[in-house]
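Long-time lurker, first post. I've been practising inverse folding by hand and with some scripts of my own, and I keep getting stuck on stretches where the structure tokens seem ambiguous. Below is the full token string for one chain I'm working on. Before anyone asks, I'm not after the true native sequence, just a reasonable design that respects the backbone. If someone could post their per-position residues I'd love to compare against what I wrote down in my notebook.
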């Protein structure tokens, strides 16, 4: 059984940083495409960032250079380094893995999310 687990969320002051992590049991991330999504209260889910099989990365327009997605295959872990956080970044953040090779992904495997709250 596949289980995807996010961690690293919390409450931070505006301008602060957080690093989210995503690991899995029963699933090898390998070079499959991986992504971070987020959903704020009362809003739809939006794609934050994606990394494809080759390591090429993509970001939502709202990221504006503040976030960095990365992966460590040896640790079977996906990361999202988030800097210069603001209140608009407050949301539940989800990790997703795809079965293909390229971004964007629809998400074949999902975690339950980790809450990020930014106090202004």
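-- Answer (accepted) --
I ran through it position by position. Result:
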């Amino acid at each position: 059984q596949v289980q995807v687990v996010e961690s690293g969320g919390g409450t931070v002051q505006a301008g602060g940083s957080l690093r989210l992590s995503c690991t899995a049991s029963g699933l090898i991330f390998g070079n499959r495409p991986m992504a971070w999504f987020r959903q704020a209260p009362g809003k739809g889910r939006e794609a934050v960032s994606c990394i494809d099989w080759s390591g090429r990365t993509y970001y939502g327009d709202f990221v504006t250079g503040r976030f960095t997605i990365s992966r460590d295959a040896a640790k079977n872990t996906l990361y999202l380094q988030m800097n210069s956080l603001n209140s608009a970044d407050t949301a539940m953040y989800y990790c997703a893995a795809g079965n293909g090779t390229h971004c964007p992904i629809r998400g074949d495997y999902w975690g339950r999310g980790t809450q990020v709250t930014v106090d202004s």
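A couple of notes from the structure itself: The chain has no helices and eleven strands. The radius of gyration is 13 Å. Happy to go over any region you disagree with.
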